[in-house]
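Run Inner membrane transporter RhtA through structure prediction, thanks.
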Amino acid sequence: MLPYPPRQHGRQSGRIGAALTAVPAPGIFIATALSTYMGAGFAVGLFGVMPPVTVAWWRVTIGALALLAWRRPWGDRLRGRGYAWTRRALGAAAAFGVATATMNVLFYASISYLPMGTAVSLEFLGPVIVAILTGRGWRPRIAAALAMAGVASISGVGLDISDPAHRAGMLLALAAGLAWACYILLGHRVATSGAGLDALAVGTAAGALFYTPLAAPTASGAFSSAGTAAAVLGVAVLSTVIPYALDQINLGRLNADAFSLLASLMPATSMVVGIIMLRQMPNIGELAGLVLVSLAVALAGRS
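Sure, done. The structure for Inner membrane transporter RhtA is below.
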């Protein structure tokens, strides 16, 4: 199955949460995707100031700080829910966070070479592979064929593999997909641990610390101007804080079939954002690959 985010235990609170709960689940899901890829679109504009790994690190770090401030995953608050951190639980959360950060770093690196919609389509091979390996029946097999055909269309028709930039972008996007697969498998373990978003907060902090040595030498570029600092903050809010918050509205409202069907819209959403924000017009090979991968996603997660 395609992944659900780590579950949050408890009720939505506040007027904003109550108002959002009244919004249909597909609307929340599409808003989440739009926010995520708009953040990625702003990130592309920062690559001239900082390397992609540093932009991704800032996204993860600011997201970690926001989650830690929101969840405060320590002390009496967790013990009141009957949960206590163990060395094993901390290790699982840290591994999940490193996988999450790696997925973001590789994806940002890939969109420095490829159009965003193309990179997202290639990256989706990761969750499709997980669904294929864990699924049964004829659907996973057809999904595998569709996904491979989509990748072949993108790599054979949509991209010029003889171009070093295209080749590097494709490999990075596929590597991001593998990191996404690890994120799914580790995320399932974290989601069933009982810590929910508290484990996500701890894991995101671990992921930020893991990539600090790589990002630190160029991290000061975020303060080169007020506009750059605002863009860095916007990337983190749009791609991390808002999606995680909106995900909580949909938890428990979407079954696996609905989730996989809506997830299949994400490559198309990223391509639309790329066209509008970055003027990245897809060619016929990229469009065909996107359609094939989207069909694979829709089919792979159905029960």
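The chain has 15 helices and no strands.
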